[in-house]
Amino acid sequence: xxxxxxxxxxxxxxxxxxxxxxxxxxxxxxxxxxxxxxxxxxxxxxxxxxxxxxxxxxxxxxxxxxxxxxxxxxxxxxxxxxxxxxxxxxxxxxxxxxxxxxxxxxxxxxxxxxxxxxxxxxxxxxxxxxxxxxxxxxxxxxxxxxxxxxxxxxxxxxxxxxxxxxxxxxxxxxxxxxxxxxxxxxxxxxxxxxxx
Length: 196
What we know:
The chain has seven helices and six strands, in the order αβαααββαααβββ. By secondary structure, the chain is α+β, with helices and mostly antiparallel strands. A hairpin with a 2-residue loop joins β4 (156-161) and β5 (164-168). The two termini are 28 Å apart. The model is unreliable at 132-139 (pLDDT under 50).
């Protein structure tokens, strides 16, 4: 089983990956934050020379994994936490972040117009300032991630949540067939960073 297959398996079954290279499970926020230094070293060791690029990748991973815990406390489907996997192929570093929480659409439903479709809500999450923690003035996290990852037109992002998907430049990488299976909870995000 590859690292991304293990993350997908966690997304679909809740089975915590064990003994699989390049995949990390965090049961809580403190474990997740501690792992950011691991991902810094992954980026460095896989050939990303620019400290600025590494900082953008690691901060994006931090934002995505923090969201898993910020928005799912008390809402986990079963297994709490998140799973992060990575791989490198053809000079492209791919990360995958998966959780079994309520999902982005469910998180934002109560703060979006009633006539918005689930697909529109997911798109709004990545493109407009909106927070599932209203009335707090937040909601920039996913926009930040998009800006950083897509600062290079050769990078790509694809998100699946609550049976919806959002993508930018995702034709740059193949999507595993398993993602065609419907799941009305949880979130899984792939992003790719081209190593120059």
